[in-house]
Amino acid sequence: MLRGKFRLAVAVALLVSPAGLSAQTATITGNVRSQAQAPVRGAYVAIPDLEVSTLTNDAGSFLLVVPADRARGQQETLVIRQIGYRTQEITVTVSPGVHRQDITLQEEAITLDEVVVTGTAGRQERRAQSALVASIDAARTAQVAPVTSVTNLLQARVPGVSVQQSSGTSGTAQSIRIRGAASISLSNEPLVFIDGVRADSRNRQIIDVGGQGGTRLNDLRPDDIESIEIVKGPAAATLYGADASAGVIQIITKKGRVGGGFSQSVSLEYNAFKNDWTPPANWAVCSAAFVSNPNSELCYGQAVGTVISDNPLMRYDVFEPGSFRSFSWSGRGGGENFGTYISLGADTEDGMFPNNSVDRMSGGFQFNFLPSDKVQLEAGFRLLRTVTELPNNDNNIYGYLGGGLLGNALSRGGFAQDGWYAANRQKDALAAMVARDNTLRVMPRIMVNHTPTDWFTHRFQAGGDLTRTQARRMYPKNVFGWYGTADLNSGQIAEAREAANRLTFDYLANLTHHFSDNVTADLAIGGQVITTNTDFTSATGTGLITNAAHAVASAAQRVGSQQYTEHREAGLLTQLDLSLYDRFFIQAGARLDKHSSFGVDAEAFLSPKVGFSYVISDENFWQENMPDFFGTLRLRTSYGTTGRSPTSGALRTYATAPYALVSGGGTAAGVLPQNIGNYNLKPERGSELELGFDASFLDEKVGLEVTYFNKKSQDLILNKPLPASLGFSQNVLENIGEVVNSGFEVAANLNLVTTDDFAWQFRTALATLHNEITDLGEIAPFGTMNRIREGAQVRAFHTHRLLRYEEYTTAAGETALRGIVSDTLEFVGNLLPTLEATLASTFTIKGNLQVYAQVDHKSDFYIYNNTAQFRERQMGTAEKWVRRNEVLTEEERVARFGPFITEGGDAVDLNNVNGAYIEPGDFWRLREVSLTYMLPDNLASYLFARGASVTLAGRNLWLSTKYTGSDPELYAQTTSSSREDFLTMPTPKRWVARINLQF
Predict the structure, then answer these.
(1) Which of 55, 290, 392, 516 is surrounded by the fewest CB atoms within 10 Å?
(2) Domain spanning 15-105 has what CATH number?
(3) pLDDT digits over 527-579, tens only?
(4) What is the DSSP letter of 393?
């Protein structure tokens, strides 16, 4: 009954819609597809002479309505245009009624007319850019690939951009490196902007759970992202200046479409994942005491010396099935002079541990308004709410993996540990802990574009990223002695509040002058101000009356603290673009920056840029003399400087300290010297040369991008030791070091087969990296395993290298084997991969079925398997220690457990010889697989939709590696710059089901 009424209501709605008025109007509908028969979303469809237009929806379908007074049965030209495809013009008859017209667009392998908004202040066409600005079609990628986060969108899409997930625990952060590591002491994470506004992208979890933390990038939902542009090199100099040394990521969100009609999209998604990794068991040898003890479940009644094993993680069924559930709705459209985009979304992910979850809700509104042909207004508002709950795990001996992997098999049974690391470390104890971050972000934005004349245009933009985080860490009061200390067992609660505000203001003016029909100059002048302040307050209470009154104020003992920081940066910029015959372009620009970190008296610093782009294939001599299989060829080169500024270190600071009063007793406030400061401190500076070309071949069937880069980072900021007699507790920061990054980046797109029934597209990308510290000034090499020294990668792995084995006579007169190691720490392997490659392939069958797969590869890097080292050497619970005489050769035993001496005969501590645990991390991973079926129009219409698709997909389904730990991509600590696997949860396989409906 209800279903019948629903169908009747929809029928009535269709009758009163433009399509229902077919007796008076002309309605042209159809699908726009590529040669591979994949839907082309966002294509412009118009009849220019009749001033009617629309845009295709996510399913590639369009609906163009011609008013009755213009539909007289005449023939008109229908124009279909989209970046990345050749423009198509079709003659159609415009008469009253509904007419169908399907269109196929031919793809362009190299798209030089695509508009980029990142890394340029003047002309925005790609052909005019001297440096490569990489782009990701996020909306198209999210339609077919199993992505649930910004990290997924970035991972293995662009050569030179390396993304590493820190853990398989839901809600944890990632590491992003663009063209290697440019700094030793400062952050190597790129800047992130959202629609031109500086965004909070910190890896931040203000309540500690051991090693892992969340990231503010997890707050963003992929459904709201249109595209992502990445500046890897000197293109960043003009717009982003002294802080862009590690690159820039610009996230461009979806917006309204002026004149585009109105469409809606609904998406439902479900992910299932579970732990397929079997954690190693704990091993032990039964002693006489345990053989005779009835509480010892595994040893009682056995022979002395019996080898036993136990796996409490599996026995207690710690790992739970994980799931991700998502719903999103968006409405997009516009009229003659306005466009709107509205979105609502919510998703929930339950991780593989009892107290691991991520809940996200988002709502956004974007409005574009053209009050006249000279003024354009854009306004947007986005509200994000994320609640992340992380368990005690990863790099935490008191976490799930720490408690299970470091346990003692002898204690299984009637002992307090029952096979775990410490007494009463049961699953229930860990599940009872609470570590939750509740974050609310408000992101307003407004932009005004004004074009008073045809030669002058200017723009003002203001926006903010206002983050409020409320966090809680709670150990419930209990009588079971779960937490091992009286304080924690009496109950403890910590509360923290953080307010982080980032405001961006920028102005940009552009003046254009045509010296002739073939020579044009564009001069851009502007400025930018970014302010950042963070206010962090925390309090901890110990000794709860009851778990129901879980407030710090109700605790018996209370302590608190507060931290406040503020940072401002301002820059003035200019850029000149010269265009000759619209095929030879020269860019020259500079930015002058000043940062509050260096004090009011510090001098501003300059970041110049220069480069050219030459579309040589547009020359007559090329078109007349080159063979037909050559298509487009563009040559480009660019040189620019960027940098990285510290947030402190230039100014002298003091620490508060109470002191005792001689008379009257008590204390008073005092100060101690903290940092001596360095008023000559400057930003780290990077200068980069980029050379490359873009080419297409075989009638746009093959596209190729090749880039060489060479980047030298100078004035690196390092701690220089101070004499203790000066009284300062921190060493002074000075500009000393130098690091070089260089390599090649190659991306190729191939349309291997294109027919009406079958198409095969293939994409490959690879990047090489040479990263080397070339100068440390007077600073001696420092660090042990991840060492900083000249001639090696930043934080490359070093240890006392095992050179050979020799026999020796022990104190007992026996002959044994020992290892001879190097006298000093020697290089073992790289921290950063020197080769990364991606292979992706898409098959389209009958225009409705699309099969997609992506394989990811990284090589020539190492990872420290600290889990194995700790279990074998420190705890003695691993099989390779307990059964070392059975499972290892004599040489393998010595390599892991010594003894070691240097060539000079000096004994070397076991912990300084780690070559057996610094393992190659090379891997091949089947990153993504998906199967997407576009429902035929008649089935979609049964759902009252103009388009519908169903996707089944998988992520991280297969891994090939020689690494013996849990996962070669992980790192144990979110804030660490090393690569260490220590009690770290591996990335799970993920299965995805999704349905998309377009209306």
Answers:
(1) 516
(2) 2.60.40.10
(3) 999 999 999 999 999 998 888 887 898 889 999 989 898 888 899 999 999 99
(4) B
Residue for token pair 């000794």: 543
Cα 55 from Cα 80, distance rounded (Å): 9
Single-letter amino acid code for the residue at 588: A
Q: Which residues contact 934 (CB under 8 A, 6 or more apart)?
A: 39, 59, 847, 848, 849, 850, 947, 948, 949
* Token pair in block for residue 846: 């009958």
Q: Among all chains, which residue has been given the structure tokens 């408690």?
A: 403
The answer to whether 694 touches 634, Cβ cutoff 8 Å, is: yes
Fold assignment, 126-275+319-391+433-646+681-795+831-861+921-998: Maltoporin; Chain A (2.40.170)
Helix, coil or strand: residue 875: helix
Coil, strand, or helix at residue 514? strand
Instruction: Spell out the long-range contacts of 939-946 with Cβ–Cβ below 8 A and sequence spacing 24 or more.
Output: 940/59, 940/997, 943/997, 944/10, 944/999, 945/997, 945/998, 945/999, 946/57, 946/59, 946/61, 946/63, 946/263, 946/998, 946/999
Contact 253, 364 (CB under 8 A): yes
Amino acid 612 reads F
Q: Which amino acid is at 327?
A: F
Decide if 193 contacts 243 (C-beta within 8 A): no
Q: Tokens 């308004």 identify what position?
A: 369
Closest CA to 462 of 367, 378, 351, 569: 378
Helix, strand, coil share of the chain (percent; to 5):
15, 50, 35
Give the tokens for residue 183. 């700094």
Domain ranges for the chain: 15-105, 126-275+319-391+433-646+681-795+831-861+921-998, 800-826+862-919
Cα 750 vs. chain centroid, distance in angstroms?
27
Predicted TM-score (pTM) of this structure: 0.87
User: pLDDT digits over 637-666, tens only?
Assistant: 999 988 777 777 777 777 777 777 777 777
Beta pairing, strands 103-105 & 26-34: parallel
Query: What is the C-alpha separation between 236 and 51, in angstroms, rounded?
Result: 39
The three-class DSSP label of residue 360 is strand
- Among residues 62, 57, 32, 147, the alpha carbon closest in space to that of 331 is found at 57
Please, is 273 exposed, middle or buried when counting C-beta atoms within 10 Å of its C-beta (0-12, 13-18, 19+)?
Answer: buried
Indicate if the alpha-carbon torsion angle 899, 903, 908, 910 is positive or negative: negative
Quickly count: other Cβ atoms within 10 Å of residue 429's Cβ: 23
Partners of residue 284 on adjacent β-strands: 308
